[in-house]
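Bench notes, afternoon.
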Amino acid sequence: MYRLEFWYEFASTYSYPAAMRVEREALAAGVELRWRPFLLGPLFAELGWTTSPFNIQPDKGAYMWRDVARTCRRLDLPFVRPDPFPQNGLLAARIANALPDGAPRARFSRAVYRAEFADGAQIADPAVLADLLAGEGEDAPTLLAAASASETKQALRAATEQAKAHGIFGAPTWRCADGEIFWGNDRLEEALAWAVALG
């Protein structure tokens, strides 16, 4: 089976529709999927940015909100604008890294995106994340404790550094087995085709 890495950040608006459709599309294409949570904040900080570029450039931000709303409507996904934006996804990303790649990480990640972009919940709140974990049948106290462990924190830092080394600068980013990357929810189909063509 072909392989595709899905690099995502919980504060990323376009990662929401990507996360909600990628498994279905990957399965149809016969492509094995890896869920790779990371943080954009450290990459932005290296550029001197203290917030999302959508906040730094108001016209770009206004377009993004309209475009994400259109995308979600087309995909029949509920959508609310998170407040504040961007939300702090650090704890959620640590929990996702503490979960095994595959179904557990995928289920939790989708639950976080639904909470943030469909329900308007505060994903930095440990109680919110605990409820999401419990709703997915996970041991919330154990995973919240694991998220605070030094090895989990280091794993997320390492993932973010790896993303940078791969040339990833935004989310969602799709990375194929040969290192080819595709940026954006709207590049998923192209990334899947590339992965299949690799054989």
